[in-house]
Amino acid sequence: MANVTVDRENSAQIDIYYEDHGSGQAVVLIHGYPLDGRSWEKQEHALLRAGFRVITYDRRGFGQSARPSGGYDYDTFAADLDGLLNHLQLESTILVGHAMGTGEITRYLSTYGSARVSKAVLLSAIPPFLLKTGDNPDGVDKSVFDRIKAAVLHDRPAFIRRYLDDFFGVGLEAGRRAGEQARLSSFRAGVSASPIATYACVDTWLTDFRADLPWIDVPVLLVHGDADRLLPFHATAARLPGLIKDLELVTIRDGPHSIAWSYPEEVNAALLSFLTR
Question: Which residues, 6+ apart, have CB-to-CB distance to 202 below 8 Å?
């Protein structure tokens, strides 16, 4: 077990739990909501076999990381990531994020720059801006997020179960790619997360990343499923070409939000091709 201290709350340290395996160029994997670093197992195997050093970590409030009462915003998440990269003294790092993790990458690169980063990979991306506003008509209505927060407060385990049905595309053809045990494992990770974090992170989904995107100056691979119920393709991935200077888009046909688990062959092939190019 390894931890890096990124802050304090009253008498307690705020520690980020991470795992660091293999050797070679470092790949840092940043998980989605409401999971933890263990959700990357299908990518970790492939990356280790390909000769990469693989680092996973748990976002604050999730997995084995500390569970403070605050800091659930992308400025803080990016600062936590910066603390990890500095602690490990990483250089020429490849950042790979899923869903919420793509927000960490975007805010990190716009705030801290690319001195430690050579490439980035966005899977099921949350940028550029998910909320529907007057200047963002393709976004999602705020009432959707209000209902999500109410559901978390009312019955968090029931919400997580319904959320994961959409996560894995239950009811779609792709839903057959994730068995009951995989969904149960994800449910356990989600329900074990901090209730405060589970609720507070919903507001982070409304972050406007449009001003961050022009600062990304490394090659970026974007992989997104066109049947993603949680981060709809038309509101997210379809809008990123032209907003990021050096972007390659791979669309997973019929892919749900859970492409890293449900379509590992396609995702890993695109990932390794991009990383070794």
Answer: 145, 148, 149, 152
Q: Give the Å distances, CA to CA, from 268 to 80, 96, 273.
A: 26, 12, 8
Instruction: Report the alpha-carbon distance of residue 223 to residue 6 in Å, rounded.
Output: 30
Note if the pTM is more than 0.90. Answer: yes
Summarize the confidence of residues 223-230 as an average pLDDT: 97
Q: Give the CA-trace dihedral at 239, 97, 263, 158, to 10 degrees.
A: -90
CB 139 within 8 A of CB 131: yes
Give exposure, 44-57, as e/b (b: 16+ Cβ within 10 Å). bebbbebebbbbbb
Contacts of 45 (CB under 8 A, 6+ apart): none
Element (H, E) at 164: helix 156-168
Angle (nearest 5°) at CA 259 between 166 and 100: 70
For residues 199 and 153, the answer to whether their CB atoms sit within 8 Å is yes
CATH of 2-276, one of 3.90.1150.10, 3.30.420.40, 3.30.470.10, 3.40.50.1820: 3.40.50.1820
List, for residues 34-76, the tens digit of each pLDDT value. Answer: 999 999 999 999 999 999 999 999 999 999 999 999 999 999 9
Which tokens go with 147? 């209902």
**For residue 89, what are the contacts with CB-CB under 8 A and spacing of at least 6?**
none
Domain boundaries, the chain: 2-276
Quick one: which of 136, 132, 121 has its CA closest to 244?
121
The Cα 2–Cα 25 span in angstroms is 20
